[in-house]
What we know:
By secondary structure, the chain is α/β, with parallel strands linked by helices. It is about 50% helix and about 10% strand. GO terms for molecular function: deoxyribose-phosphate aldolase activity.
Amino acid sequence: MTATASNLDLYAEVTRSEASLRRFLHGLPGVDQVGADARAAGLGTRSIKTSAKVYALDLAIRMVDLTTLEGQDTPGKVRALASKAMRPDPADPSCPQVAAVCVYPDMVATAKETLDSSGVHVAAVATAFPSGRAALDIKLADTRDAVEAGADEIDMVIDRGAFLSGRYQQVFDEIVAVKQACARSNGESAHLKVIFETGELQTYDNVRRASWLAMMAGADFIKTSTGKVQPAATLPVTLIMLEAVRDFREQTGTMIGVKPAGGIRTAKDAIKYLVMVNEIAGPDWLDPDWFRFGASTLLNELLMQRTKMTTGRYSGPDYFTLD
């Protein structure tokens, strides 16, 4: 589906003023919380065939953003993580690599150098991660530093205080400005993931509003959480975001990615998310370009399950490197 002139005009009109943006966001259909919870729970009970499980495990590995976001991060730790991203299971060269390595901006150059031309992307958190509480010029400088260091993707956080107090235009304008800061001098641009911190948004209606606001502002991905606040990713919240990207594509022809992050720890959980992606958004989103897992502890569990499926033997958690 291609975007129509009327759709583009609609969104241009919506974002011209705080009042029109507010009317649009509050005019979105309300979320039936009980219905969303029930639908997510129902999808979570689906089973898949053994052959499909093998494919799903490899796909989930390819969708992982392997992450280290700690004050104790060192160049050595980042290099080790980047090496694991390229060869998650050194004993099995058929094991796919992950989608990206996500680090703080000052570690981008180290990750980029290690990953080289492997195809694994470098993502950097920016804009005063994880709080999002800083002046705009600081957020933009943070973003530009990461992009100049070679980041392929920027994970920004919205100002939840501004959003929850109804200052939607401020949040919209910041996303637009960060998107512009993702541009490189050669005309290319780092992809922008916008993090909502859904655990702080309080209602499913707010999750839907934040999804539409970010997409209209130019997000390439919408992401649930920083992983620093609980609850983080949940199936119902991800369902609402998948509905939003599906509906946005139907209306504009533009496809936006989704990234649940935090709290996804088992292969069974990952497969539940993949089933939901297929059922809610559609098979086009079953690709690392359009769906990611922000869950580093998930990778070893996927590797253990993959080894069991391919060899018949279940390896212990200490068989793979700990992140």
